[in-house]
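seq:
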Amino acid sequence: MDEAVRDGVAEQRERLMESLRIYGGHYAELSRRFATWLGLHSTDATAVLEIAAAEERGTPLSPARLSERISLSTGATTALLNRLEAAGHITRAREHSDRRIVTLRSGGHIQKRADEFFGPLALRLDATMSHYPPRLLQQFEAFVADLNTTMDSHLAERTSTPSRSPGATDGGTA
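struct:
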């Protein structure tokens, strides 16, 4: 590790992680503004975006999968879906041969509104990425996928490990 520090690799990694944190903050702020623009609570807007994005990828979400994606309990997700469906923002359909499986679809206006809101940014981001060779973008895509896998693993471990208070002791004695 001393060699990595001498070569500036540690500082480079730190700068990269800071840049990713800043990007995450920008993404969160953009999501908050989209919610305000739609007149929705931020959690509702996040759910609508997840549903629309999954549809766009050709892999529509079920309520259970949405619950995982936005970190809500199944009960809270049901209440959220009831609100969104009543407002006409989403529909629940039984499209699968197993009629117990519910598929979530965004209302037609949602994709149009999302395109209107995010379209200009998408063009700017595409223009920015066009300056980089495809091979570098492939490497960055793999890098980000590895970071996401690492974060998913860490979060799964943290979920399965009971939390302890900072001052807690094992035997209850000090």
